[in-house]
């Protein structure tokens, strides 16, 4: 939907989460315009790129430059988490070894030299963090072919290599990768508007199983925790002339390399050759972690549990509309995981 279209008529006091997508975007566009006042740019055009978990606009300036502005609409990242994300992106963009292999967006400083800013939203009743970043050319990788999948695995390994020679600066920190599992399981357990009692029982059983298995993984000293992207899939990478660019570090957190692999494989599950291409690409840069398959499957299943909670708690109109169907399908897939020990999207 073009961001330039006028907002649909809605009562002035209608809660943000009950507004149409068009109305939500129109209101967030005004927030974005105010956020850009903090940056040394003269905006010529502001166009919607994505209105999903967060909302991102393309910013074209009067001097011919292009940027991406992200508003953290649903993300509740603390300031120290945003500081860590911006610091990691800046370090990656400046690292020559990384630059030989992949591209990442570089945060743009505000007029005051900060790598992030905040702007008030009357609709949401809180400050929204905003980050302006350099533009990444190319198309979204989407569903990768074997070549793209290998590049995705190699990009992940490049990020893991980088954190071995880099440390978070003082005052910056990242949340733990497993924290959303308990949080989103509680969201699902409390729901009475979308889920059935039978579905909630499935989610609770999955929470219990994956919690124990992931605890085993985290207790293994051969799997240390470090910063990871934690959302590396085809919609969060660009592909241009066989070069990959990684963006959307909003989910960056502290976890094991197995977590990062499993989260990526969640989106590719049911395509074994493509999964293997990701692993092969990773191994072309650094050795694969030595993991137990049941631990990998637990993290993959946990990803579905977390996303189920996200769908229930998000304000974005289009995502709220799919909640009943998404939760029902998730319960079916997670029940199959409980029965077989393997998570799949396609069930016979």
Automatic annotation (TrEMBL):
Superkingdom to which the source organism belongs: Bacteria
Any Pfam family: APH
GO annotation terms (biological process): threonine biosynthetic process
Aminoglycoside phosphotransferase domain sequence ranges: 52-283
Name assigned to this protein: Ser/Thr protein kinase RdoA (MazF antagonist)
Coiled coil: none
Record bears the keyword Transferase: yes
Gene3D superfamilies according to UniProt: 3.90.1200.10, Phosphorylase Kinase, domain 1 (3.30.200.20)
Similarity annotation: Belongs to the pseudomonas-type ThrB family.
Single GO term (MF): homoserine kinase activity
Record's keyword terms, sorted: Kinase, Transferase
